[in-house]
Write a structure and sequence with these properties.
748 residues; mainly alpha; Serine Threonine Protein Phosphatase 5, Tetratricopeptide repeat; two-stranded antiparallel ribbon; 27 helices; 2 strands
Amino acid sequence: MTPPIGQSDARGRSPSVGAGLQTVAAVGLLAIAAARCLVSEVPFRSAQFPDLGELSRVSFAVAILSVATLWALGGALAGTLRVRGAALAVMILAFAAWALAAAWNASDRRSALDGWLEQATLLLAGWLALQLFSEPRRWRLLLAVLAGALVLASVKSLWQVAVEIPERIRDFDLHRAERLAQFGAIEGSIEAQLFENRLRDPTPTGYFAALANLFASALLVLTAATAGLAADRIAVARSRRRTGDASREPWQIDTALLSGVLLAAAALAGAVVLVLTRSRGGILAGSVAFAAAVIVVPLRRRLAAHWRRWLLVVATAFLAGVAAVVAYGIRFDRLPTKTMTFRWYYWTASAEIVRENPLLGAGPANFDSAYLRHRRPAAEEAVKMPHNVLAHAPAQFGIPGGALYLAILVWMLAAAVRPRGPQLDEPPAPRGARSIWAALGVVLAAALFARLVLARTMIDANLAVLDALLPAVVLAAGLALGAWAAGLLGPDGTPRGELARAILACGLGAFVLHNMVEFGLWAPATAMLFWLGAGACAAQGPGRSWLLTRWRWPVVLAALAAAVAAGAVLARPVCARSLLTLQAREPDSPLPAAERFRLAEQAARSDPLDPLSAMDAAKLALEAAADPARRAAMVGRAVFWAREATQRDPLDFATHRLLSEVLFAAGDPAFLDALARAVELNPQDMRLRMDYAERLLERGQKAQAADQLRRVRDTNDRQRQAIPDAMQQLQPNELARLRRLADRAGLP
């Protein structure tokens, strides 16, 4: 007999409380996904632009672990913890263990541990979605949240195209010198050219860190979910029309049809925005998703009868396409277009990284420095990601870890399209419009908090209104529309979600296809959308369920221990250091140089693994050394922290270059050795080599300088031959400098 609400039986079980906690866990996952869509998180750290992005990443990771604790506690209180996808859980645990070993072996351990925690918890989010969203109302709530996120993304993008981008370009034209100075770029430099090109880019990016390709990846999932919910709602209206609804007057509007049409319009707006992003890979993947949906939806029952066969056909076609691309690349050492040729260079460098360390790879979030060591002369960009999941996984985690990651991806995609069978006897989610409004309120509050605090819009009242409060109003309207269409706010025709699952699965497949040329699976917001959608789709299918009774409390304790450990060991130092770094490097800070150095030094001490904070301390110590009375002491501190940075990340050329600059300021002749090490770690950087050649000439080492200048010429010639309009090749002023240095070195 079920005990009354809020009471336990003789064994301490409380099914209603347990079900309520698991519903809270499901809402928590949705709140995290919505909040991440409003924060410009990227899967790497920037030394140039300190922000709260890293703090956001570790905080959301701990939040996902907390959601896992709530889910486990809910099952324990209910008396039985129901677990689906046990094999998937084992693979995720094995991957987490291997990826942790890869992170500890990485050169930059702070970035690696951040990346490890992020990827492990994103996979956990997908597995939790498999546990939490099989219940029909939770499934429809997920679709409603994704639809609301698309409404906000579409409105934001259209506003960007109509207002923000033209205003940004006009402002740059009027204040060109000032804007370049704020960016730290010199007129005529490659940095200035890149900055101007990005600023004049007319493509909308939503809230995705000015990266249109990542935004396109998110749109693939959001648009598919919204289109699927619209199709289900329209199907309800058609069913009413066929059967006849005697209670409806002829003059009354069919609200099912109206909500379906409104959502279809939102999905169409998402498709238009996808085209506006000019992401060729995203547009192609979206076209594939649309074509697949056109085939799958009308034939879904016939395809379901032989789903394994058709899944094998799709997998074979995909692998054949990959093989064709690789064969073309090997044959011609390039791919048909300029952008694809760039990517071929990234992928071949990734293969070299795997060859260098096949077991553990470069480590999570350590691809960028490893890539520079293996970058070929014709490759112009110093990229952070290889833009291909098949290359990125083994490059980060080694062959075993990469294979585990890809196996998890394949398992989840297969489960997402597995035909529906007998559904599990799930405890019902709380019913009634009040509980739905409460859930939507939590999602909205999380998104608003993230935009105000983590995106730092609250620092200015006007910015808070325009870039946080108004978007929150739009999101609220989108969430209400989605919940209405999902049949969560009343008895007005409840959609089953069958079409939504089929169309969303097509969008998820398109997302993975886009990840053959992009890195959406590694960016927190887009990856969260994918894993959440994939897990929820998988939850709609059949699957064996394990019932844990005796072991349910140990699982709760393990989940709680993981959340506490992640917060105390990984998130706490990141939090302390991030806040101190922001104070030390805040633009237009009124603090004197000595005080800013003190804050930077405190930040560097608060996180002993972080090389960037040590570099900040060294740079600010040099600034403080402008005071003659403090010069000797500050230069000494700069040397200390620059050396500390090289120890914290010995394979990053930037740490050694900074050490060279600091040692030069200190009058230490070892500066030349440090600069030589920087060149060794980034051999294709022509400007770095010219700096090294100039220092060699100052020391009278003409022969060595001439050798460096020959390599600069060779790299520049290769770039120009491979890609005539490559932006990274030497500019006219730099070519003039090269000729002057060559004359001094006696190089013809």
